[in-house]
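RECORD TYPE: protein structure
NAME: Nudix hydrolase domain-containing protein
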Amino acid sequence: MVCMVSRTGRHLQRYDNLGRRQVVGCIPYRYKSSSDGTMTDDLEVLVISSQKCQKMMFPKGGWELDESREEAALRESLEEAGVRGNVECELGKWDFISKSHGTFYEGYMFPLLVKEELDFWPEQNLRQRTWMNVKEARDVCQHWWMKEALDILVERLNSLKQQNEQNYPNICSDLVAKISSL
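PREDICTED:
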């Protein structure tokens, strides 16, 4: 068993030239498997509870000096949600004010295609994690900027799906069936 702990402290924290703390988050997602083991088109996203209360959100935290934004997204998803996967192209950058601290932040969001869900992770005793569909996630997510990132992700995935269906109408369903059977 590997011992994992969350990073703590702000000594490596990044701030922009206006003094705003820089944070990075991700939207962990997967496609639901059907009862026969094949992949369906149902998109699920993983939301987590905040540490201090039961408000739901996507994993996010400070971007530190010794890591890229993508590395920070991977770290936060592991620490807070207990998932590993592939970080995809950035969804965007948002400026927002923390409701609890009243301070300005600069936040970046990435999609994370989940490949592994861990049984044990650093913040498992502090947070709940829940897979849900996009509509449910939009309803429970407490941050407007994370909802915008979710909308961008859904639009991007739908666009990619349409492109694949147009370019490879018969190959796509055959390929998905083959991948699912592995």
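COMMENT: The chain has one domain: 21-181.
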